[in-house]
UniProtKB/TrEMBL annotation:
CDD domains: MPP_PAPs. This is Purple acid phosphatase. Belongs to the metallophosphoesterase superfamily. Purple acid phosphatase family. PROSITE patterns: PROKAR_LIPOPROTEIN. The keyword Ribonucleoprotein does not apply. SUPFAM superfamilies: Metallo-dependent phosphatases, Purple acid phosphatase, N-terminal domain. Its EC number is 3.1.3.2.
Amino acid sequence: MAGRRGAGAAVAAWWCAVGLLLGACLAGQTSEYRRRLGSAVDMPLDADVFRAPPGHNAPQQVHITQGNHDGTAMIISWVTTSEPGSSTVLYGTAKDNLNFSANGKHTQYTFYNYTSGYIHHCTVKNLEFDRKYYYAVGIGQTVRKFWFRTPPKSGPDVPYTFGLIGDLGQSFDSNITLAHYESNSKAQAVLFVGDLSYADNYPYHDNVRWDTWARFVERNVAYQPWIWTAGNHEIDFAPELGETKPFKPYSYRYPTPYKDSGSTAPYWYSVKRASAYIIVLASYSSYGKYTPQYKWLEAEFPKVNRSETPWLIVLMHAPWYNSYNYHYMEGETMRVMYEPWFVKYKVDLVFAGHVHAYERTHRISNVAYNIVNGLCTPVHDQSAPVYITIGDGGNQEGLATNMTAPQPAYSAFREPSFGHAILDIKNRTHAYYAWHRNQDGSAMAADSMCHPILAADGRLLRQFPVIDIHTDDSWCCGYST
Ligand SMILES: *[C@@H]1O[C@H](CO)[C@@H](O)[C@H](O)[C@H]1NC(C)=O
Ligand SMILES: *[C@@H]1O[C@H](CO)[C@@H](O)[C@H](O)[C@H]1NC(C)=O
Ligand SMILES: *[C@@H]1O[C@H](CO)[C@@H](O)[C@H](O)[C@H]1NC(C)=O
Ligand SMILES: *[C@@H]1O[C@H](CO)[C@@H](O)[C@H](O)[C@H]1NC(C)=O
Ligand SMILES: *[C@@H]1O[C@H](CO)[C@@H](O)[C@H](O)[C@H]1NC(C)=O
Ligand SMILES: *[C@@H]1O[C@H](CO)[C@@H](O)[C@H](O)[C@H]1NC(C)=O
Ligand SMILES: [Fe+2]
């Protein structure tokens, strides 16, 4: 089945290439691949991936995220359960010489009748670019050691490889997605587009499932930063339980370096990483005119120096362009507010989650409509971003399989399968993007879909992406000029 699909895709890609020569590539593709249906099942509490590390008061749920705007700081977080213990991180560039130290703080929260462990956050600063650092937590008790690599200093041709994961959850499929992502040894950081644990799907939003999720993903996020985006499953607004502070568990557990980009809330912010400038937006915080997020974004776009970071990427949870019959139009109100800026400032890529499936659009915009002129159809626009929905991490709610028909002209490819993506930036003009579907069963090999994109360079020139589909994800498509 995969073979037949591959052949069909190759033909479609060939037609697309022909279309390119003619200056247009309008055909969309709805994949015929159908994964086994039925909703994904959460791993049980005694699953191997949820085991707490051994040792008295051992640090667990270790995770890191970028700690400042330029990448020379890292926020290191972990949880202890018996007693607070130390909030100190020892670190250094040699494995056996952790001669730097930084002191953090610990905090704790309650949610209905749940009381969290001691949640530690420590920011290590003044790191050198492009260096491997070793770090240790649990000082004075059970010490656990990890490592990470800082990004290279930003510059237009600095290569960097990002992973894209969304709506992960903690099902058996989530575990396959994570293992599949980990099998790509080149990936250096994850752009996470929201909906982490799905603890809120449990009775009383059982926050134990926030703990299990963090233990599950530690094997990756203790070693490479995940850049967080808040999704609807992070809101945890539960007045029936007396919990009315939105994002309470999420904000206690997952800090972001928002102050360093002039933001006033942790849910919208920006970071630079190698040749990419990443803007994180909050689908569930107010974004209308005059709101803090609106004012921040208005001031933020002009700050992006495309000569330094040619790749401008935006993350959000609710997609603006989504042709599945799930969460349909939920991103529309934010699109109406912000899309003109995305086109004006030539955003390259917009990644969203929320819809549990995969979809990629052509470069399109829908900014002409002004209520009276009737111009309400998305049109091809070389200044507009490619929009990618990658909410297919594998959570317990299962796949979104019901699509609108026919496929809208703006939609380039869509398929309801669990998976993740890799964005492999080579230099200011070339990046290879591949979506990796999880195969049924335990196999980690997958099809990939790649489309090199001629990025915004100093002159912000654009070219249609070349689209090709291959069945071997160890090789990513070539580029034709
Ligand atoms: C830590 O050791 C490294 C050599 O491994 C040295 O370059 C650095 O200056 C030392 N830092 C401190 C704070 O002692
Ligand atoms: C919280 O309350 C629910 C409902 O009464 C109960 O089932 C659960 O065991 C309680 N959890 C804790 C940690 O007390
Ligand atoms: C999760 O995936 C890892 C890596 O493949 C594997 O070692 C582990 O047994 C899996 N656990 C479950 C519960 O599927
Ligand atoms: C933009 O970045 C380039 C390359 O790093 C640098 O030479 C230039 O001064 C920057 N421009 C501004 C306005 O900061
Ligand atoms: C798919 O979604 C449409 C629109 O919501 C609905 O009318 C239709 O019944 C759905 N089809 C299936 C098979 O669920
Ligand atoms: C940019 O990267 C592409 C793909 O690796 C390569 O073909 C091209 O020569 C590079 N451009 C420059 C200016 O190095
Ligand atoms: Fe969502």
